[in-house]
Structure formats: structure tokens, C-alpha cells
Design brief:
Layout lengths: L1 H41 L3 H16 L2 H20 L7 H27 L2 H9 L4 H31 L11 H12 L2 H37 L1
Helix pairs in contact: 1-2, 1-4, 1-6, 1-7, 1-8, 2-4, 3-4, 4-6, 5-6, 6-8, 7-8
Length: 226
Amino acid sequence: MAGIISSYLTLFLIAMGRTLLLALLGLFFGSILGVFFGLLSVVDNKVCNVISLIYVNLIRAIPMIVLAFFVYIGIPYAINNSLHIGMKFTSLTAGTICLAVNCGAYMSEIIRAGIKSVDAGQLEAARSLGLPYWRSMRRVVFPQAVRNTIPSIVNQFIITLKDTSILSVIGFPELVNKAQNVIAITFKSFEVWTVVALMYLIVILILQYIAKRLEKRLEYVNRSHD
């Protein structure tokens, strides 16, 4: 294993950097989708509620690998057959879309739970002061909801980070993809996968530590407000 580390550590570190970048992009755009559909799920409008419910249930029912192939191959194929424009996604673009759409479904539930965790009296008080519904949500409810969901968002980032490994199937040069390339050269699968597992373990343990620290900080802030 020492030989693998000395020969390919730089390659693995670069691949881990790409993995983290892809996970961050997926979480960023997934958070945007999550906020949008999370708000749709709590407004007093049945059509909006149904749209959010369909999105969440549909995406959560589709395996990530199927979603990856659908975005990378299926969507360009359908568009090219219809418009004849020669469209093609890069693996980074397809991977970001895939992760964002998948992450967005789970983030929607996180945001919905965060909004529900804020006392309903806060919204009523803001409305009684003359603030419109959406301004009350933006200025009063939503900041508290986001604060309450920070640990869950960090945990979702960990899940998204692990989901990037699936995107090796569409050729994105993340850690698992590069590990497969190294195994094809060295035929040392045990050593390579051990190094990869340790790299994931280190990064995820750091993220879990951050999540626990944020959770403790949040509990302290909530107690001080009480």
C-alpha cells in the first residue's frame, strides 16, 4: 500500500478535490431547488403542495445511477432527436445536474421541517404588524428555519459527497473513477480501495465533527434565546 500512496497520492488528492467540488456544486444548486420546493410545500395552496410532493417523491424513487444516465445520455438524446442541435453534456455538468436534482428533493424536506419547527405564532405576529406573507417568511421565519437546519444540511452534504462515487459511471474524474484507472494499471485492487476508503473516511469524519459542533452551537444559541 505504501507504493500506491507514494506513486498515486497526488492523483488521488486531485481526484478528491474534484469530488468535493462536485459535491459542493450539487449541494449549492440542490439547496436552491430545496428552498423553492420546500416553500411550495408549506404555502396555503394545494396546487403548490402537490407540485412539491410530486417532485420529492419522484426523485427519491429514482436510483441515482438511473438519474445519472438519464441526465448524461437520455436528455441530450431526446433534445438532439427533437431539435437536431448536437447537444452534449460534459460529465461535470451532468454530474452537477444529477446531484442537484437528487439533493434538492431531500433538501426540500429539510427546509420544510425547518419551517415547521418555527413557532406559527412568529408568522402570525409578523402578519399582524402589517408585513406581507412572503416578506414575513423571508425576514422572520426563513432565517430561523435555516439556522435550525444547519446540522441537517451538513449531513446532507456528507450524503451528497458519497453519492459522487456513483458518477464514475458517466466518466467524471472523481476519486472512484481515478481509483478504477489505477487498478487497471497496477492490478492492486485491495491496496487502492483501502487508500480510497481511508480518504473518504477522513473527509467524512471531519464533516461529521463540524456537524456535531454546529449542532451543539445551535443548542447553546437556542437555550440563550429561551
